[in-house]
Amino acid sequence: MKLHINDANILMDIVKLDLAEAFLALGFELYTTDFVFAEMEPEQQEQLVSDTLIKIGADEDEMTAIFEMMEQHAGLSFEDCSTWYFAQKMDGILVTGDGRLRKKASASGVEVRGMIYIIEQIKVQGLLPVAICIEKLTALKALNDRLPINEIDSRIEAWGNE
User: Fold this and answer.
1) What Cα–Cα distance (Å) separates residue 22 from each residue in 51, 88, 110?
2) Can you tell me the distance from the alpha carbon of 140 to that of 124, in angstroms, rounded to the nearest whole number?
3) How far apart are CA 31 and CA 115, in angstroms?
4) I want to staple 81 with a disulfide (CB 3.0 to 4.6 A). Which of 70, 74, 88, 114 is the partner?
């Protein structure tokens, strides 16, 4: 399974939540674009540098296609469109916390996931104990108040009963 990471928001949250090691250990092919990676602070990049997270560059034709996508979808950045473009091209999953990108990519047929999914997969794959995953979900709520809090709370409750 492939994961494509958006616009640095997911990667930045992974670093803020101290989940880089577990994230990089997920049993997925992990990708981002070099444009997205360049948006991050050097200290954040350091925590995610790995052979596991592959940075994709775009050739001239791909750059043109990404710019065209950006022109057709007002409000999306070049970096947003680069992840959407490669998610489509590689038949991958786009992982994003950006609501506008999520809606547009999903409407185009791309499977879209978010940060809750990443933490859930870390738990499912046994990369961190359930109690730590609950702590990370709780911290995520404090980090981003635009997330579906009811989904987070239902997972916290269910995982607390495991």
Assistant:
1) 14, 26, 25
2) 18
3) 15
4) 70
- The 3-state DSSP class for residue 70 equals helix
* Tens-place pLDDT, residues 44-73: 999 999 999 999 999 999 999 999 999 999
Q: CB count, 10 Å around CB of 128?
A: 18
The three-class DSSP label of residue 41 is coil
Which run of H or E residues covers position 75? none
Rounded-to-integer distance, Cα 129 and Cα 91, Å = 31
DSSP-derived secondary structure letter, 49: -
For the beta carbon of residue 119, count every other beta carbon within 10 angstroms: 28
Strand partners, 32: 55
**Structure tokens that stand for 30 in this block:** 């992990």
Q: Positive or negative CA dihedral for 135, 140, 143, 146?
A: negative
Percent of the chain at pLDDT exceeding 90? 88
Bridge partners, 53 (sequence order): 30
Q: Which residue has the tokens 């979900």?
A: 137
**Total length of the chain:** 162
